[in-house]
Task: structure prediction
Amino acid sequence: MSPSARPQTVEGYLRALDEPKAATLRAIIATILDQFPELEAVIAWNVPQIKRGHAYVFGLCAYQRHLTLAPWSDRIITAFRPRLGAYVVRKHCFLVPVDWRPDPRLLGDLVAARLAELADPAPPTSARRSRRKA
Result:
């Protein structure tokens, strides 16, 4: 993608998508921002991101056959795995259909969990092994 073709705004990103992808992503963003008006939607890494200050809270991306939603935390994905059972779940994100009807409660809970994590970050989930000289 050439620099001139990269979206500069969330609306620019959405305008480049076909339907129903654009409508679904607009609805997801609106659902999150309605519940958390202190957050903002921006473009980062050429895709829409929801952030608070300098911290990223939730990412979205459209692909040919699905949308990827990411709460920016593998711990949150792990904690919400039972509620994400209907979707394809990866380590840092989950995939929804391009015509997904946003679930306000799920999105709100994911964002609230990420905001809580940002307020009180836990140590990494796996300890790094130290190398000992023999």
Observations:
- The two ends are 50 Å apart (CA to CA).
